[in-house]
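Let's study a protein:

___
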Amino acid sequence: MGKVIVISKRIGSKKQCVKLKSKGFDVAFFSDIKEFENKKVIMTEILAVFFDVELFSEGYLDCSLEKLRNYFKDIPLFLWCERSLSTLENYVIAFGLSGVILYSDTIQSICKKLQMVKEKKESIPLVFPKILDDIVGDSDKIVALKKKILTLAKSNLPVLLLGETGSGKNLTARIIHNLSNFAEGSFVQTNPARLPLDICEAELFGYKKGSFTGALDNKIGLFEQADGGTLFLDEIDSIPYPIQAKLLTAIDEGKIWRIGERCQKVVHTRIISATNVSLSALENIQTMREDFFHRIAGDILTLPPLREHLEDLPALVEHFLSSQAEPKELSVSAFKKLYTNEWKGNVRELNLTLLRAIKNAKSFVILSSDIVFF
């Protein structure tokens, strides 16, 4: 439904928040803008904002409203006040606010206004950025995934991607990066789990010349390479335990130390990590530190397996076949056969299956016998 943000110092406002929560609304109460900013609420998740006029400096209402409108931009903004005055109504029109809500308004009246905001928001056609076309499909699962990606892209929090093998974690990580505030920086990808412990530390943090045998020159680590951009850590569930401790400060404070150096370096690197392990299994892995898990899971995005959105199969098939140098078509029986597979390898397995079928096909049309599952 979206968050309702109430910014007020009044005790009575808190009571209204409790009533709104009882009606099913997700309500967050803040005493002022500074407290709201410190909580780092994701703007795209806000349904509406109630702002108490008592917080405005006396005589500066027009100036304050302009700043407030610019701050919340397109988010529906209501003035929260004791009584409605003609001057306030004029301000509502002048600054494009959604209206005035009185302290004395009934909870039913407030809920009605919020429901109207919600319905208006839902009636607006959803247009995704062009880059999200790379995630093929328009099923409910895929639309929800794209919406979540947009939300995550506007946040600076570390993101943990959960998804089975072949579900598109790498692609999703790149899209989040390209839509984020870090898009102008580099997208650096690594799989620390596949590196020996000593090499893993050197790769991530770099080292100073002469710090160990073989260190013939200074080396910049992946964190520095991704400074101002995104560092994508794949198979995070298998990362060596000692490295997890060293990553805590890097993720939490943006501070790293090259091997052999005493001075720390500050980097502004966003972390996106991924695993094909389920969330419940991930939380129970004995070799994963609890504090490390909470650092990487600033927000979590679960990618749906293909078997949960088979209605996207026609679009995916068309996408893969049309990308070939000599596009071919599926026969009806071949297309039906695709629905009989479990797709444990998800979209990647579908792509490879179609590539094999193209190779096996003796004509322009791919037959059922050309499709082989492994």
Notes: The chain has a mean pLDDT of 88.
